[in-house]
Amino acid sequence: VIRPARPDDVPAVHALVRELATYERALDEVEASEGDLAALLFGPAPGASCHVAEADGQVVGMAFWYLTTSTWTGRQGLWLEDLYVRPAYRGHGHGLALLRALAQLCVDSGYRRLEWWVLDWNSPAIEFYRAVGAQPMQEWTVQRLGGSALRRLAAG
Amino acid sequence: VIRPARPDDVPAVHALVRELATYERALDEVEASEGDLAALLFGPAPGASCHVAEADGQVVGMAFWYLTTSTWTGRQGLWLEDLYVRPAYRGHGHGLALLRALAQLCVDSGYRRLEWWVLDWNSPAIEFYRAVGAQPMQEWTVQRLGGSALRRLAAG
Fold first, then answer.
1. Mean pLDDT for all residues in chain B
2. What is the pLDDT of residue B26?
3. Residue B105 — pLDDT band, cuts 50, 70, 90?
4. Closest CB from B17, B72, B150 relative to A107
5. Cβ of B153 and A68 within 8 Å?
6. Which pairs with CB-CB distance under 8 Å and at least 24 residues apart come from A28-33?
7. A156 touching B, CB under 8 A?
Protein backbone atom coordinates (compact mmCIF):
# COMPACT_ATOMS: atom_id res chain seq x y z
CA VAL A 1 0.00 0.00 0.00
CA ILE A 2 1.35 3.41 -1.03
CA ARG A 3 -0.24 6.47 0.59
CA PRO A 4 0.65 10.08 1.51
CA ALA A 5 2.32 10.30 4.91
CA ARG A 6 0.26 11.42 7.90
CA PRO A 7 1.55 13.39 10.91
CA ASP A 8 1.69 10.17 12.95
CA ASP A 9 4.11 8.68 10.39
CA VAL A 10 6.81 11.25 11.20
CA PRO A 11 8.73 9.09 13.72
CA ALA A 12 8.88 6.23 11.16
CA VAL A 13 9.91 8.60 8.36
CA HIS A 14 12.61 10.10 10.57
CA ALA A 15 13.94 6.61 11.34
CA LEU A 16 14.04 5.78 7.61
CA VAL A 17 15.87 9.06 6.83
CA ARG A 18 18.53 8.02 9.34
CA GLU A 19 18.75 4.45 7.98
CA LEU A 20 19.25 5.78 4.45
CA ALA A 21 21.89 8.27 5.61
CA THR A 22 23.69 5.44 7.39
CA TYR A 23 23.72 3.44 4.15
CA GLU A 24 25.01 6.56 2.38
CA ARG A 25 27.81 6.82 5.00
CA ALA A 26 26.59 10.23 6.08
CA LEU A 27 24.67 9.76 9.33
CA ASP A 28 26.83 12.48 10.88
CA GLU A 29 25.30 14.95 8.41
CA VAL A 30 21.74 14.32 9.61
CA GLU A 31 20.80 17.17 11.93
CA ALA A 32 17.04 16.96 11.30
CA SER A 33 14.87 16.12 14.31
CA GLU A 34 11.39 14.58 14.14
CA GLY A 35 10.07 18.08 14.85
CA ASP A 36 12.00 19.49 11.88
CA LEU A 37 10.52 16.90 9.52
CA ALA A 38 7.04 17.45 10.97
CA ALA A 39 7.39 21.20 10.33
CA LEU A 40 8.61 20.66 6.75
CA LEU A 41 5.75 18.26 5.96
CA PHE A 42 2.86 19.51 8.08
CA GLY A 43 3.79 22.99 9.35
CA PRO A 44 2.00 26.24 8.50
CA ALA A 45 3.99 26.59 5.24
CA PRO A 46 4.95 23.03 4.24
CA GLY A 47 7.94 22.81 1.90
CA ALA A 48 7.87 19.09 1.22
CA SER A 49 5.67 16.01 0.94
CA CYS A 50 6.15 12.34 1.65
CA HIS A 51 4.62 9.08 0.48
CA VAL A 52 5.03 5.90 2.50
CA ALA A 53 4.87 2.19 1.68
CA GLU A 54 3.04 0.08 4.24
CA ALA A 55 3.40 -3.66 4.79
CA ASP A 56 2.53 -5.87 7.75
CA GLY A 57 0.80 -2.86 9.32
CA GLN A 58 3.94 -0.73 9.43
CA VAL A 59 5.82 1.83 7.35
CA VAL A 60 8.56 -0.04 5.50
CA GLY A 61 9.53 2.56 2.90
CA MET A 62 9.19 6.20 2.00
CA ALA A 63 9.64 8.77 -0.74
CA PHE A 64 10.29 12.33 0.48
CA TRP A 65 9.84 14.98 -2.21
CA TYR A 66 9.18 18.61 -3.10
CA LEU A 67 8.29 20.64 -6.16
CA THR A 68 10.83 22.22 -8.49
CA THR A 69 10.54 24.75 -11.31
CA SER A 70 12.18 24.71 -14.72
CA THR A 71 12.83 27.76 -16.88
CA TRP A 72 13.15 25.40 -19.84
CA THR A 73 9.89 23.45 -19.54
CA GLY A 74 8.12 26.45 -18.00
CA ARG A 75 6.44 23.99 -15.65
CA GLN A 76 6.94 22.53 -12.22
CA GLY A 77 8.66 19.22 -11.62
CA LEU A 78 9.17 16.86 -8.72
CA TRP A 79 12.44 16.35 -6.86
CA LEU A 80 12.67 13.08 -4.99
CA GLU A 81 14.90 13.90 -2.03
CA ASP A 82 14.92 10.46 -0.39
CA LEU A 83 13.71 7.06 -1.59
CA TYR A 84 14.21 4.21 0.85
CA VAL A 85 12.85 0.74 1.58
CA ARG A 86 13.92 -1.22 4.65
CA PRO A 87 16.34 -4.03 3.67
CA ALA A 88 14.04 -6.79 5.04
CA TYR A 89 11.25 -5.59 2.72
CA ARG A 90 13.24 -5.23 -0.50
CA GLY A 91 12.54 -7.28 -3.60
CA HIS A 92 8.78 -6.94 -3.14
CA GLY A 93 8.30 -3.95 -5.41
CA HIS A 94 7.85 -1.29 -2.72
CA GLY A 95 10.51 0.99 -4.22
CA LEU A 96 9.02 0.66 -7.70
CA ALA A 97 5.53 1.29 -6.33
CA LEU A 98 6.70 4.48 -4.58
CA LEU A 99 8.44 5.72 -7.73
CA ARG A 100 5.39 4.83 -9.83
CA ALA A 101 3.07 6.73 -7.47
CA LEU A 102 5.22 9.84 -7.91
CA ALA A 103 5.34 9.36 -11.70
CA GLN A 104 1.54 9.12 -11.71
CA LEU A 105 1.32 12.29 -9.63
CA CYS A 106 3.59 14.05 -12.15
CA VAL A 107 1.48 12.96 -15.11
CA ASP A 108 -1.78 13.89 -13.35
CA SER A 109 -0.50 17.30 -12.20
CA GLY A 110 1.45 18.32 -15.30
CA TYR A 111 4.85 18.15 -13.58
CA ARG A 112 7.23 17.57 -16.46
CA ARG A 113 10.19 15.96 -14.75
CA LEU A 114 10.73 13.50 -11.93
CA GLU A 115 14.31 13.92 -10.73
CA TRP A 116 16.56 12.75 -7.94
CA TRP A 117 20.23 11.97 -7.49
CA VAL A 118 22.27 8.94 -6.63
CA LEU A 119 25.72 8.28 -5.19
CA ASP A 120 28.05 7.05 -7.92
CA TRP A 121 29.01 3.90 -5.96
CA ASN A 122 25.40 2.85 -5.30
CA SER A 123 25.25 0.28 -8.11
CA PRO A 124 22.02 -1.50 -7.07
CA ALA A 125 20.17 1.82 -7.06
CA ILE A 126 21.71 2.91 -10.38
CA GLU A 127 20.63 -0.38 -12.02
CA PHE A 128 17.11 0.12 -10.72
CA TYR A 129 17.00 3.70 -12.06
CA ARG A 130 18.22 2.56 -15.49
CA ALA A 131 15.54 -0.12 -15.53
CA VAL A 132 12.76 2.42 -14.99
CA GLY A 133 14.10 4.60 -17.81
CA ALA A 134 15.80 7.44 -15.89
CA GLN A 135 18.50 9.35 -17.71
CA PRO A 136 21.74 10.22 -15.85
CA MET A 137 22.58 13.92 -16.24
CA GLN A 138 26.27 13.22 -16.55
CA GLU A 139 27.30 16.57 -18.03
CA TRP A 140 26.15 18.45 -14.92
CA THR A 141 27.67 18.77 -11.44
CA VAL A 142 25.78 20.20 -8.49
CA GLN A 143 27.53 23.05 -6.68
CA ARG A 144 26.81 23.64 -3.00
CA LEU A 145 27.40 26.58 -0.69
CA GLY A 146 26.66 26.00 2.97
CA GLY A 147 27.92 26.72 6.46
CA SER A 148 30.76 29.21 6.78
CA ALA A 149 31.24 29.55 2.99
CA LEU A 150 27.61 30.65 2.64
CA ARG A 151 27.96 33.15 5.48
CA ARG A 152 31.20 34.51 4.02
CA LEU A 153 29.60 35.14 0.64
CA ALA A 154 26.58 36.77 2.29
CA ALA A 155 28.81 39.04 4.35
CA GLY A 156 30.73 40.13 1.25
CA VAL B 1 21.30 47.34 -8.49
CA ILE B 2 19.94 43.93 -7.47
CA ARG B 3 16.19 43.66 -6.81
CA PRO B 4 13.38 41.08 -6.90
CA ALA B 5 11.83 40.78 -10.36
CA ARG B 6 8.51 42.49 -11.04
CA PRO B 7 5.81 41.28 -13.42
CA ASP B 8 6.96 43.80 -16.03
CA ASP B 9 10.45 42.19 -16.02
CA VAL B 10 9.10 38.90 -17.41
CA PRO B 11 9.89 39.66 -21.08
CA ALA B 12 13.50 40.53 -20.15
CA VAL B 13 13.82 37.44 -17.92
CA HIS B 14 12.43 35.26 -20.69
CA ALA B 15 14.98 36.71 -23.13
CA LEU B 16 17.81 35.98 -20.65
CA VAL B 17 16.59 32.39 -20.14
CA ARG B 18 16.82 31.91 -23.90
CA GLU B 19 20.26 33.53 -24.12
CA LEU B 20 21.57 31.26 -21.36
CA ALA B 21 20.07 28.17 -23.00
CA THR B 22 21.72 29.17 -26.27
CA TYR B 23 25.08 29.39 -24.50
CA GLU B 24 24.35 25.97 -22.95
CA ARG B 25 23.64 24.62 -26.48
CA ALA B 26 20.11 23.71 -25.50
CA LEU B 27 17.83 26.39 -26.95
CA ASP B 28 15.76 23.61 -28.54
CA GLU B 29 14.87 22.43 -25.02
CA VAL B 30 13.31 25.76 -24.03
CA GLU B 31 9.55 25.38 -24.32
CA ALA B 32 8.69 28.02 -21.72
CA SER B 33 6.72 31.04 -22.95
CA GLU B 34 6.65 34.45 -21.27
CA GLY B 35 3.24 33.46 -19.93
CA ASP B 36 4.67 30.26 -18.41
CA LEU B 37 7.37 32.21 -16.57
CA ALA B 38 4.85 34.82 -15.45
CA ALA B 39 2.66 32.05 -14.00
CA LEU B 40 5.59 30.40 -12.21
CA LEU B 41 6.74 33.69 -10.69
CA PHE B 42 3.52 35.67 -10.18
CA GLY B 43 0.61 33.23 -10.62
CA PRO B 44 -1.88 32.24 -7.90
CA ALA B 45 0.51 29.57 -6.53
CA PRO B 46 4.02 30.79 -7.43
CA GLY B 47 6.65 28.03 -7.53
CA ALA B 48 9.71 30.19 -8.12
CA SER B 49 11.28 33.59 -7.59
CA CYS B 50 13.70 35.75 -9.53
CA HIS B 51 16.16 38.51 -8.77
CA VAL B 52 17.42 40.81 -11.51
CA ALA B 53 20.51 42.98 -11.95
CA GLU B 54 19.85 46.39 -13.44
CA ALA B 55 22.37 48.63 -15.21
CA ASP B 56 21.92 51.55 -17.60
CA GLY B 57 18.18 51.40 -16.83
CA GLN B 58 17.74 47.87 -18.11
CA VAL B 59 17.79 44.27 -16.85
CA VAL B 60 21.25 42.88 -17.67
CA GLY B 61 21.26 39.78 -15.50
CA MET B 62 19.03 37.47 -13.48
CA ALA B 63 18.95 34.71 -10.89
CA PHE B 64 15.90 32.42 -11.11
CA TRP B 65 15.41 30.26 -8.00
CA TYR B 66 13.08 28.20 -5.84
CA LEU B 67 13.08 26.64 -2.38
CA THR B 68 14.24 23.10 -1.65
CA THR B 69 13.98 20.88 1.42
CA SER B 70 16.61 18.67 2.99
CA THR B 71 15.92 15.64 5.17
CA TRP B 72 19.49 15.97 6.47
CA THR B 73 19.50 19.61 7.55
CA GLY B 74 15.78 19.50 8.37
CA ARG B 75 15.57 22.96 6.84
CA GLN B 76 14.78 24.57 3.52
CA GLY B 77 17.44 25.56 1.03
CA LEU B 78 17.64 27.56 -2.16
CA TRP B 79 18.11 26.11 -5.63
CA LEU B 80 19.46 28.54 -8.19
CA GLU B 81 17.94 27.35 -11.43
CA ASP B 82 19.47 29.97 -13.76
CA LEU B 83 22.17 32.58 -13.20
CA TYR B 84 22.97 34.75 -16.19
CA VAL B 85 24.55 38.10 -17.02
CA ARG B 86 24.54 39.50 -20.56
CA PRO B 87 28.04 39.21 -22.11
CA ALA B 88 28.38 42.98 -22.64
CA TYR B 89 27.86 43.52 -18.89
CA ARG B 90 30.22 40.88 -17.56
CA GLY B 91 33.27 41.68 -15.46
CA HIS B 92 31.40 44.32 -13.47
CA GLY B 93 30.38 42.10 -10.57
CA HIS B 94 26.71 41.63 -11.50
CA GLY B 95 26.93 37.84 -11.23
CA LEU B 96 28.66 38.01 -7.86
CA ALA B 97 26.13 40.58 -6.64
CA LEU B 98 23.23 38.31 -7.64
CA LEU B 99 24.82 35.30 -5.92
CA ARG B 100 25.58 37.40 -2.84
CA ALA B 101 21.98 38.63 -2.65
CA LEU B 102 20.78 35.01 -2.62
CA ALA B 103 23.39 34.04 -0.01
CA GLN B 104 22.19 36.92 2.16
CA LEU B 105 18.59 35.76 1.72
CA CYS B 106 19.63 32.25 2.81
CA VAL B 107 21.38 33.53 5.93
CA ASP B 108 18.48 35.85 6.82
CA SER B 109 15.83 33.17 6.27
CA GLY B 110 17.63 30.17 7.74
CA TYR B 111 17.98 28.37 4.41
CA ARG B 112 20.97 26.12 4.96
CA ARG B 113 22.20 25.51 1.45
CA LEU B 114 22.52 27.53 -1.73
CA GLU B 115 22.83 25.06 -4.60
CA TRP B 116 22.86 25.03 -8.38
CA TRP B 117 24.50 23.00 -11.10
CA VAL B 118 26.92 23.68 -13.89
CA LEU B 119 27.83 22.06 -17.18
CA ASP B 120 31.17 20.28 -16.90
CA TRP B 121 32.62 22.15 -19.91
CA ASN B 122 31.67 25.61 -18.61
CA SER B 123 35.14 26.44 -17.23
CA PRO B 124 34.63 30.19 -16.65
CA ALA B 125 31.54 29.46 -14.53
CA ILE B 126 33.28 26.66 -12.63
CA GLU B 127 36.22 28.96 -11.78
CA PHE B 128 33.80 31.59 -10.52
CA TYR B 129 31.98 29.04 -8.36
CA ARG B 130 35.25 27.78 -6.86
CA ALA B 131 36.24 31.38 -6.10
CA VAL B 132 33.06 31.97 -4.06
CA GLY B 133 33.64 28.77 -2.09
CA ALA B 134 31.07 26.40 -3.62
CA GLN B 135 31.77 22.69 -3.27
CA PRO B 136 31.24 20.41 -6.29
CA MET B 137 29.10 17.38 -5.36
CA GLN B 138 31.14 15.07 -7.51
CA GLU B 139 29.99 11.79 -5.96
CA TRP B 140 26.38 12.42 -7.02
CA THR B 141 24.66 12.22 -10.41
CA VAL B 142 21.19 13.60 -11.06
CA GLN B 143 18.71 11.14 -12.56
CA ARG B 144 15.86 12.42 -14.71
CA LEU B 145 12.59 10.88 -15.86
CA GLY B 146 10.59 12.91 -18.34
CA GLY B 147 8.47 12.63 -21.45
CA SER B 148 7.54 9.15 -22.59
CA ALA B 149 9.68 7.42 -19.93
CA LEU B 150 7.76 9.25 -17.21
CA ARG B 151 4.42 8.33 -18.76
CA ARG B 152 5.49 4.69 -19.15
CA LEU B 153 6.45 4.41 -15.48
CA ALA B 154 3.19 6.08 -14.44
CA ALA B 155 1.16 3.71 -16.58
CA GLY B 156 2.91 0.69 -15.08
1. 97
2. 94
3. very high
4. B150
5. no
6. A29/B72, A30/B71, A30/B72, A31/B72, A31/B73, A31/B74, A32/B70, A32/B71, A32/B72, A32/B73, A32/B74, A32/B75, A33/B74
7. yes
